[in-house]
Structures are given as C-alpha cells and as structure tokens.
Amino acid sequence: MLSQVRTIDVRPTLPQSPAAALVLVGDILGLLVFIIWGLYSHGLPAWEMPQHTLTTATPFLIAWLALAPIFGLYHRDTLRSYRRTLGLLVGGWLVIAFVGGLIRATRFFDGGTGLTFFIVNIVFGLLILLPWRLAVVAALRR
Known about the structure:
mainly alpha
C-alpha cells in the first residue's frame, strides 16, 4: 500500500535580496521588542539598563541568526507564501526559543530557564514575529 507524504522543501538560505535583508532587520527589531517587552513586564525598563538588555537579547539573537536561515525563513518561496511562513516560523521559533533559552542558561549569561520561561517565550515571541512575517508576505505578494 502506498501513501502520500507531504514535505516542505527547506534549504538553508541567507537573505539574498534587498527585501529579504530588510526582513532580517525587521526580525531583529521584532526580537528586540520581544526582549524589551519582557524586561518591562518584569519591572526592568530596558532603556535604563542597556547593557542588561543587550545581555538578555544576545542568546536569542544568536539562536535566531544561526537557525533562521537553516529553517529557510529567508528563502524567496517562504517570503511569498502564507502557508510556508506560518509553518516554518512556528516550527522554527519553537526550536529557536528553546536554543536561545539553553544559551541563556549557560554560565555566560544571567538568568535561568524553566518550563514557564519557554512557554512564555514561545507564545509572546510568536505574538510579535507572526503578524510581522504575515505582513511581509502580504506586502511581497503585491
């Protein structure tokens, strides 16, 4: 008996166009908004503690910059497809948030991680990144 399996062709892709490079800048800004929002919700205004803000953001920026291209988040087909963007961003962010948390848990960074930390990162990260990326798809499809 034969069965059909659907797969998504994902190839590591760095931004290869001006549009994709702008998306990368927007992603980094989105991650910074996510970190600043998180710090502020814990009573730590980011603008009063720029070094702490940078130290908090660094593990997630490292994880994003290392893994987003592997998930194909800058591939032309992804940037023009709602389905690919949704699937790859959600799946990619699950891994990226986990890896960022693991990096944060090392002795090189302050702060620990726990189940609640990961869940909050996943949910609130997607609340920022997903609308941005869907808006990108809408703009590039025009």
